Amino acid sequence: MSESALLEVRDLYKSFSLSRKQRAQRHLSSDRLVAVNGLSLSLYEGEIYGLLGPNGAGKTTTLRMIATLLSPERGEILYRGNSIGQNELRKKIGFLTSELKLDDFFTPSYTFDYFSALYGIDNAERDRRKGNIFARFGVDRFADTQIKNLSTGMKQKVSLAISIAHNPEIIVYDEPTNGLDIMASRDVENFLLDLKKEGKAIVISTHIFSLVEKLCDTVGIILDGSMRLEGKMNEVCANASLEQVFFDLVEGQE
Ligand SMILES: Nc1ncnc2c1ncn2[C@@H]1O[C@H](COP(=O)(O)OP(=O)(O)OP(=O)(O)O)[C@@H](O)[C@H]1O
Ligand SMILES: [Mg+2]
Fold it and tell me: Cβ distance 219 to 59 under 8 Å?
């Protein structure tokens, strides 16, 4: 194990039970589907890790286990080399998924307050953080507008702001630019680079290769729930583009 990993994920394994109908739809004989199969990765302070893989490869399942939203069947997650409880780990993690649903009837400001209260942050600290974070993303312009009246990009900015309400050390973002236009995507990129500068350990999953090439220090490619290729960006792409490396890997397995 590396001494300096902030978070180390070891041999994660997760399977889902399938109904008879799901089994038939997928033409599977087993009643369980292995989504993540012995997957390991390490996150370091001030680094962005990019997780790539085809649809259904196991990226979201992996990230949900890291974010403590799903319990691994096997494997462990170590924080600074130690196994800590899920509740403790959760406080250190900021999670964002494109499926995250904000309550339409709340305002961004109220939502931020609500999540801050869940994390036990006192009101003065909450207001200080809210002021800073909202100003940074331009959320202050619509802080008191009901979420149902916001655009997708605006909502995503609200979600980003809320994901760091508790000042997490580890950032876990599942397809953070999904559905965003080029301007909003750039805002997210800059947001991630800011977090990196602050020394956060970041893992993102995405299908946007240019995002990984631009932002990530390390890249991991998952196929069928297992890590098939992992390395520093410059090493992985020493002789070919990331896209080419990816295609070679996927086609090699078929
Ligand atoms: N709750 C569940 N019940 C049954 N199967 C599931 C469940 N969640 C995920 N799966 C299956 O596990 C596998 C991995 O899914 P996962 O969502 O982790 O993939 P992904 O890499 O995030 O894909 P995508 O790129 O489409 O987001 C898929 O075959 C998926 O259908
Ligand atoms: Mg996914």
Answer: no
